[in-house]
């Protein structure tokens, strides 16, 4: 009788543990990717609060990506809020016109600023959560994709990123 109970319990336990571990592992990876300095409290929040599944963290689809052609049109129409999430030294060596430098490591706190403080700090109007012309870019699309994830978490669901980054821009448009 005990053996029967144990053998019936093991598959259920394995299924439950695999679900918990796969979801927890994915959430932990997303947390580490989002923060460069994970803390114990952030990991505890990851495992103890209900949060989106891994698939919901995959936000990069074609609707969230701006192509070079689209970027050029938005720039020529002055219909863009372009944020360069590279480090200041990278920004100083070359940049896309109209881009405002907000390094990735301060992006979250910057997007949480009041409109007045944002304007004072960056000398541009703060983006609104419903703005559909908010675009992030970096060197090659990796950090801008992370920036997009941060923006989505803060409610900027119409934000996009330029996947080609400064590398593509400089190759096509020159410095």
UniProtKB/TrEMBL annotation:
Q: Which keywords fit this entry according to its UniProt record?
A: Signal
Domain of life, per UniProt, equals: Eukaryota
Q: Which InterPro entries match?
A: Rhodanese-like_dom, Rhodanese-like_dom_sf
What range does the record give for the signal peptide? 1-28
**Any idea where the Rhodanese domain is?**
76-174
Q: Where, if anywhere, are coiled coils annotated? A: none
What name has this protein been given in UniProt?
Rhodanese domain-containing protein
Species source reads: Iconisemion striatum
